[in-house]
């Protein structure tokens, strides 16, 4: 089983953090996310004892654009997640926490049946945080650009109540969650969707 967290945010602003060297942001995150960072360090305590960076050190490396230790790529992926937590508006993930591994493809099929071809939720499981962050299999990362969100939301609005009802309860609920994410993105100024799969 896996789970996802979804955020509506300015993707360009998020990407610009990587390598920015922004010490004010680092200090702010260290205070505002202090509880998150402490929980993360406790969860990964054994790995930190073996040489993995603490979560704050991983966030610092992301903000500085390195240096990175490829052995601990997951810590930088989680650090990027923490930056999303700070910058983004968390979205409802009720239908994606937890989910079985073939669920995303099932939801993609439901989206296609309604004519939504601009986005897929499986994107969130097959991509990775931006370069220069090291490759990691957990967490995985994916995003929907503002243009994709606008196109997909228009496609959603063109679908009918009858088409949506034909999906069945569970699938319809999941597809409607996707539509809520799209609504959140398109209601802001140039927002996109970022999602992490754990």
TrEMBL record:
It comes from Rugosimonospora acidiphila. It comes from the Bacteria. InterPro entries: DUF7691 (IPR056108). Residues 4-196 form the DUF7691 domain. This is DUF7691 domain-containing protein.
């Amino acid at each position: 089983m896996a789970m996802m967290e979804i955020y509506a945010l300015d993707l360009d602003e998020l990407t610009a953090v990587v390598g920015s060297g922004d010490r004010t942001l680092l200090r702010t995150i260290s205070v505002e996310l202090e509880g998150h960072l402490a929980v993360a360090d406790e969860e990964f305590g054994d790995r930190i004892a073996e040489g993995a960076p603490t979560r704050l050190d991983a966030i610092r490396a992301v903000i500085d654009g390195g240096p990175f230790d490829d052995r601990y790529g997951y810590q930088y992926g989680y650090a990027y997640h923490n930056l999303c937590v700070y910058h983004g508006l968390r979205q409802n993930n009720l239908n994606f926490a937890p989910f079985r591994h073939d669920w995303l493809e099932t939801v993609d099929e439901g989206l296609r049946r309604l004519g939504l071809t601009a986005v897929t939720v499986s994107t969130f499981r097959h991509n990775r945080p931006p370069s220069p962050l090291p490759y990691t299999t957990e967490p995985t990362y994916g995003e929907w650009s503002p243009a994709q969100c606008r196109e997909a939301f228009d496609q959603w609005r063109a679908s009918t109540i009858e088409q949506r009802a034909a999906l069945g309860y569970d699938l319809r609920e999941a597809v409607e969650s996707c539509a809520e994410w799209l609504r959140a993105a398109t209601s802001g100024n140039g927002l996109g969707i970022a999602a992490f799969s754990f």
